[in-house]
Amino acid sequence: MIPQSFITDLLNRVDIVDVVGKYVQLKKGGANFMGLCPFHNEKSPSFTVSPTKQFYHCFGCGAHGTSIGFLIEYSGMGFIDAVKDLAQNVGMVVPDADDKIPPAQRAAHAAQSLALTEAMTLACDFYRGQLRGAANAIAYLKNRGLTGEVAARFGMGYAPAGWDNLRSVFPDYEALALVESGLVIDKVDEDGGNKKRYDRFRERIMFPIRNTKGQVIGFGGRVLDSGEPKYLNSPETPLFQKGFELYGLFEARQAIRDAGYVLVTEGYMDVVALAQLGFPQAVATLGTACTATHVQKLLRQTDTVVFSFDGDKAGRRAARRALEACLPLITDNKTVKFLFLPTEHDPDSFVRERGFEAFELEIHEAMPLSQFLLREVTAEHDLSEPEGRARAQFDAKPLLQSMLPSSLRLQIVRGLAGLTESTPAEIEGLFELAKPVSVVRRAPPRQGRPQPIGLELQILRMLVAHPPLCFGLDAAALEAFNSFGPESAERLAQLVGDGQALGPNGSFAALSQHLKSVSPEYDALIAEIASEPESDPEAGKLWLSGAVREIKLDALKQELNQLFSSGLTSDQIGVRFREITALQDQLRREAADAAPQR
Predict the structure, then answer these.
(1) Is the peptide bond before 452 cis (omega within 30 degrees of 0)?
(2) Residues 6+ apart with CB under 8 A from 74
(3) pLDDT digits (tens, 9 = 90+) for 107-124
(4) Residue 399 belongs to what H/E stretch?
(5) 445 domain residue, yes or no
(6) Which long-range contacts (CB under 8 A, 24 or more apart) does 356-365 make?
């Protein structure tokens, strides 16, 4: 768990204008910066970035957040990765309570990562330069229908013939980083004597693989002829794990948002060719089966994932593995589909032969996950016989057990029940599904806290906009908030505690980031504050003091009205009466002192 104090310090050090400006073209507009929103299509800029609030807000689609939130939403990073990325840019080291790595070892890891990243960047630049003069490689790409524009967009290059071309790029060709990055191979004689070093990639079209930050972490190389292997990938390295990365995701992020879905294909050339043909929202797994990590990354980018596979047996096996990776992560607000092309086609050839609209129709009519699952477990069994129906249920059991309790799971259970002459309740009981959906007796929905209104809403707004004001609220103020009701008082007390936990330098951005991680309760209020001009904290401090005095005076007045019916003795009533009136006089004097002098 990253301490909140670190998050606060980080958001105080980074500049959201610089963070967002790397991805969105911003222009100064008054106190803020404006640009075209990266989260929805628009022709007139409605996306604002506030340097004072350190917050972004789109008046068109409502997207809003901090620098951390922007990296999560735009780049598809996880929270920790986004924090680490920002921290690295400002020279901070993210603390980790569970991290037992000694500082010296951590520094060595950081130095290694930097050396590998620099090596991959230099190699990528070299391969790109080589492509410009490689007539055979250019002819191959043109024959595949690719333009120089799309090749440049994906950073494609060419590894020429020769065993040690990278020697001209790296003065120290024997550097350890070249082996650790997978750019070269060390071959040792059988007797362990002489060692020969040579380039891994030779005479291949080079596809750089980028991470979510756009850094080159690996390569895929394709031969120009019928040589083997057709595709050669970088090995697993400290930078690159095939089960974690997707080719083309960095380049496709905006297109995925624009299209509303991501198309997952099987190869580099599919991605590049589809981008050329009008489908820039395509990505590919890297010569490995689809993993849960792949699915997580995709579902961070969009609510709809369409897997495209060849219609042969290998394609069906790949689709089954993708199905199994998706099931533990699928929820009712996410959609996964499976597209199977005719065996003679890949996406590239299909679009070129049948056209853009035909492929778009295929995507639209792709098979939903529920239908694919039911087909997988029933296709090879005779459902007219008890044994066939039992075997279908047997095959379905582990798949359904891996799913979260949801409406989608219930729909699949009902579909399976209909096919196997059972009831949904029987299947859920037989499969021992966690939290059965069809038979559970639902408790009445728990009522949330009442929505804040009036003075309570104004106080909440002021404290969220200016968290340091929380330090001006004492125990008596928190006690006075009970006049709003116990649940409202609890909400205000929690907010005051959260604001004080940020420290005296707490900011709107830091508190917003914290509240977002706790509950969606404040989302609408945060969006309102983000869309409004910056308010004056000093004026807010005076207003808050006045508001708290009025609440305290109202509470004392109510107590005074009920004092004589409280059941106290006359002496006790007299003592408390004097205490109340003294407190009222003190509050009125404070109000008079705070009033502007005329």
Answers:
(1) no
(2) 23, 38, 39, 253
(3) 777 788 889 999 999 999
(4) helix 386-401
(5) no
(6) 356/277, 356/278, 359/279, 363/261, 363/263, 363/306, 363/308, 363/337, 363/339
Of the listed ranges 353-367, 379-393, 533-547, the least confidently predicted one is: 533-547
Task: Check residue 448 and give its pLDDT.
Answer: 59
In single-letter form, the type of residue at position 261 comes to Y
Residue 499 domain boundaries: 454-526+535-594
Domain count, the chain: 5
Candidates 544, 550, 532; CA nearest to 587 is 550
Please say which residue of 365, 400, 420 terminates a domain: 365
Q: What is the pLDDT of residues 458-494, one digit of tens each?
A: 889 899 999 999 988 888 888 888 888 888 888 888 8
The secondary structure of residue 247, as a DSSP letter, is B
Q: Are residues 557 and 498 in the same domain?
A: yes
Q: Domain check: are 18 and 131 in the same one?
A: no
Asked whether residue 438 carries a pLDDT value surpassing 80, the answer given is no
pTM: predicted TM-score of the whole model, two decimal places:
0.71
The answer on 576 and 515 residing in a single domain is: yes
131, 174: one domain: yes
What is the distance between the alpha carbons of residues 318 and 315, in angstroms, rounded to a whole number? 5
Q: Is 23 helix (H, G, I), strand (E, B) or coil?
A: coil
